[in-house]
Amino acid sequence: MSALDALLRAIFDVLLMPFSGLPPLVGLLILSLVTAVVMLLVFKKASNQEAIDNVKRKITAGLFEIRLFSDDVVAILKAQGGILRNNVTYLRLSFTPMLWMIIPLTLVVAQLQFHYGYRGLRPGEKTLLKVQLDSASLPPETLGGQGKPSVALKLPEGLKADSPSLWIPSTREMVWRIQAVRDGRYEIGVGVAGQTYTKSADVGGGVRRRSPVRYAPGFLSLLLYPAEAPLPRNGPLDSITLEYPEVDVPIGVNLPIIGNQINWLILFPVLAISFAFLLRKPFGVKI
Fold first, then answer.
1. Percent of the chain with pLDDT over 70
2. Residue 43's pLDDT band (boundaries 50, 70, 90)?
3. Three-point CA angle 6, 204, 173, nearest 5°
4. What would the pLDDT profile of 181-223 be if each residue is shown by its tens digit?
5. End-to-end distance of the chain based on CA atoms, in angstroms?
6. HEC states along 60-122?
7. How far is CA 51 from CA 35, 46, 47, 163, in A?
8. Computed from CA positions of residues 87, 34, 48, 102, in that sequence, does the dihedral angle turn out positive or negative?
9. Is the pLDDT score of 278 beyond 90?
10. How far is Cα 48 from Cα 53, in angstroms, rounded to an integer?
11. Phi-psi sector, 259: left (phi>0), alpha (psi -120 to 50), beta
12. Of 155, 163, 164, 159, whose CA–CA distance to 125 is shortest?
């Protein structure tokens, strides 16, 4: 899984590089269009198009039957039963192509989250760095609040510590407040038990990969947090977290309730599904 994550990171870094200096909406429009086209092609290839077309015609016929025999209760009930059965058939026919799409889409969304879900720190801005230690590597007295473990923080020139370390025994976390100094991409060093573990840090704007947390290896952490290589297995650290501000995507218009910004995790599927419905006929796909 970690090898797949590394490959996907490299691919998406290259693919999204042309959009790094553009408004996020531009990149999401193009990505959702490409995603829609791929979804249509996969759906067409993996589904029984003739059967889907037939069952949709039966559903439509059932709706017309209800309108035509609106005074006949028995006919209406039979039509409703037929519509229900055909809807179940339609869901069954759609299940296989959805299975083909759901895993690749999950991997794509996981990668895009770390390009579009966070912004970089700004010079002068402060944030928290949290290092969670594995309980097996800690002396018992530190978990009881007596003293704190030895953890050394090594910051690059583009970042500086704004507070001394704070040890929180209940969560096994060592916490620092750090401040961004200048734009750039950096590596923070965390020294524990004679070893140094790194965490990426990003100061600056633009669309690019930002990793808020680096976890020890695990299936869910590799699936949901693929933006950075995992920490060494069986090491003294469970995670290193650098808190980035989460951002919404400006959409250029002020919509009721939503406003003029929207989370990319809502915007991206809405755009992809909209493009898919618009392009289904040119691509000859029955959905």
1. 97
2. very high
3. 65
4. 999 999 999 999 889 999 999 999 999 999 999 999 888 888 8
5. 32
6. HHHHHHHHHCCCCHHHHHHHHHHHHHHHHHHHHHHHHHHHHHHHHHHHHHHHHHHHHCECCEC
7. 25, 12, 9, 65
8. negative
9. yes
10. 9
11. left
12. 159
- More reliable by pLDDT, 71 or 215: 215
DSSP output for the chain: -HHHHHHHHHHHHHHHGGGTTS-HHHHHHHHHHHHHHHHHHHHHHHS-HHHHHHHHHHHHHHHHHHHHTTT-HHHHHHHHHHHHHHHHHHHHHHHHHHHHHHHHHHHHHHHHHHHHSB--B-TT-EEEEEEEEPGGGS-HHHHTTSS---EEEE--TTEEE-S--EEETTTTEEEEEEEE-SSEEEEEEEEETTEEEEEEEEES-SS----SEEEPS-HHHHHH-TTSPPPPTT-SEEEEEE-PPB-PEEEEEEETTTEEEE-HHHHHHHHHHHHHHHHTTTTT---
247 has pLDDT over 70 = yes
Q: Which residues pair with 129 in a beta bridge?
A: 176, 242
Integer Cα distance of 212 and 246 in angstroms: 10
pLDDT, residue 266, reads 93
User: What does pLDDT average to over the chain?
Assistant: 91
Strand order, beta sheet including 184-192: 151-154, 184-192, 195-203
